[in-house]
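Appendix B, Record 12. Input sequence as logged:
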Amino acid sequence: MPLSFFCRFVLRGLLCAVALWGLASGSSRAAPGAPVLDSLLRQAQTPQLSDTARVLLLCRISDQYWARNTDSAAAYADRALALARRTGYRHGEGEALNRQGAALRESNLARALELFQASLRLAQATHDRALQAQNLRSIGIIYVYLRDRQVGLSYYFQALRLGQQLRDEQRQVLDLSNIGLAYDLYNQLDSAGYYQQQAYAMAQRLHSPTNYILYGLGQEARKQGRVAEALGYYRRSIAESKRLQHLRCLNFAYVGLAALYQQQGRPDSSIYYARLGYQAAQSNGFLRGVLNASTLLTQQFTRRGPVDSAFKYQGRMLVMKDTLFGQEKVMRLQSLDYRERQRAQQATVAQQELRARYQKYALLGGMAALLALVGLLGWHQRQQGRANAALQASLVELKQTQAQLVQREKMAFLGELTAGVAHELQNPLGFVKQFAAAGTDLLAAINGQQRLTGDGALDREILDGLKDNLLSISQHGQRATAIIRGMLDHARTGHTPRQPTDLNALAAEQLGLAYEGLRQQFTDFEARRHLDLAPQLPVLHVAAQDLGRALLNLCTNAFYAARQRQQAAAPGYLPTVTLRTRPLPDGGAEVQVQDNGVGMSPAVQAQVFEAFFTTKPVGEGTGLGLALSHDIVTTGHGGTLTLQSEEGVGTTFTITLPGA
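Logged structural output:
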C-alpha cells in the first residue's frame, strides 16, 4: 500500500541514522546516576562556594541533566553563563557556552553551532586545550548530523589528538566511540568495530560507563547479521543505561533492539521496544530519539494495523522531521559556516599584515643608524614603503569586495533554487490538501446519512469516493517524494569513487533495468531492445554508480518516448530502443541511446537539460533525471552529453567519455 512504501523509504534514510543519534551521547559526559546529581544539587546550596567554583558546579549539574531532561540542562547552563560573565571568568564562560550548545542541539541546530564556535574561540584565546577538544567534538557531531562525513570526522580526530596530548583517557574513550559510531553511520563496519573495540577496552580498564559503547557494538553486530551478539550488546546497554538513568542511551538501545526484532520478523517485540524507546526520548526531550522510534512504529503499524496508530506515529514523525531538518535551519547553518570561515580568513590576513608591519618597522629601525650616510637611499625606501602600504590597503579592499560579490551571488543562486523547489512541490502538495479536504467532507456526509436514512448504497458510493481521494493523496505525496529524492541524487553526484568499469556490461544492465521498470509501471508495454556493443571497448576509470544512474535515466526516457508514440501510432509500429558503444581515438568511449519515439521540438531540446523541466504529465516526472545525467557526464567525468531529435521520428542521446 502507498503508506507502507512511504514508510520504507523514510526508514532507509532515518533508521540507519539511529547510530548517528548515539553520537550525542559520546559528546557528553556519561551520567553516573541520581546520587551524583543529588550530591551536586546539595553542593549548589552551599553559600561559601566561590564564584568560579559555582560556575563549574552549575556546568556539572547541566551535564547530569543532559541525559535526563534537556530543559533543565539548558536552565543550569544559562545560570552558569550569567555568573561567569558577571565575574569575568572566561574559562567558565567557555564551559557554559558549550553546555548551552549541547542542550540546544536537538531543538535549534544552528544556534548550537554558534555557541560551540564561540566557546571554541574562547578556548583558543585562553590556550585551554581541554575545552578546545570538547568543542571540536561537539562541532564534529553537528557536521555528522548534516552528513558531511569529511568535515565531521576531521573534527573528531582533532579532538582525539588533543585528548592524547593531554593524556586524558576518559576523553579518548568518548572520542573513539564517536568515531566508531560515525563509521557505522556510513556503513564502514570494519572501521566502526575497530574504534568501538578500542573504546570498550579502555573504558573497562578505567571502570567508566560503557552503555553507549555497547550500543555501538550492537549496531555493528546487527548490520553484520550476528543476531545473538547484537541482542546481548543491546540488553547490556539497556541495563547499564537504566542504572545510570541515561535516558538518551536507553532510547538508542531500545530502538536498536526494536530494529533487530523487525529484521527477524517479530513485529510484537519490535513494537514493544520501539514504544519504550519513544517514551525514554519523550521524557528526556530528545527529539531525534522521538523521530527514530516514531519512524519504526509507523512502519510496523502500517504493516499489521491498527491504521489509526500508524497515522498517530506518522504525524509525530513528520513533526520531528520538520523541526529538526527544516530548510531554513539548514540554510542558516550553511551561512554560519561561511561566516566562520570568513572570520578565520580575516584573522589570518590580520596576522600577516601585523607581521609585515613588524618587519617594516625593524627595517626602518636599522636604517635609522645609517640615515646620515645614506639619506637619499632612506628617503627612497620610505617612499616605497608608503606605496606598498597603499597597494596593500587597496588589495585588502579588493578582496573584501570580491568576497561580498561571491556571497551575494551565492545567496541569489540559493534563492533561485529555493523558489524552484517551492514551485515544484506546490502542485502535488496543493492536490494533497484539496483531496484531504474532500475526504473530510465525505466522512461528514456519510455520518450524517447514517443517522438520517441508513442508506447502505449511498454509504458505499461515498466510501468509494473517499477511497479515490486517498489514492490521489498517496500519488501526489509520492510525486513530492520523487522530487526530493531527485534533488538528493543531484546533490550526491560526484562523491562516488572511480574504478575500472566494463562500459558494455554497465550499459546493457541499465537498459534491462529501465525496460523492466517501465513494464512494472505499464504492464501492457512491450518494446524491442537492440544492442550494438563494440567488442574492443576500453575499460575506463569511472564512477560506475553515478554513470549507471545517468544511463538508466536516458534508457527510461527512451522507452517512455517509444510508448508515447505507440499509443497514437498505426498498428504496425514497433517500439525500439537501440544501445550502441564504440571506442574513440583518444582512448575514450562513446555510448548512444536511440529510440524511435515521439521525438522533441527545438524548443524542448533547448530546455531538456534544465532542472525541473519536464514534458511528462503531472505525477509521472520530476524534471531532474536529464539534468542529473548531464551533470554526472560533464561535471563528474569531464565528458559530453548531446542529443539529436526529430518530432515523430525519434531521439538519440550521445555520451562521450575521455580516456585516461
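Strands lie at 499-501, 528-532, 540-542, 576-583, 589-595, 640-646, 650-657.
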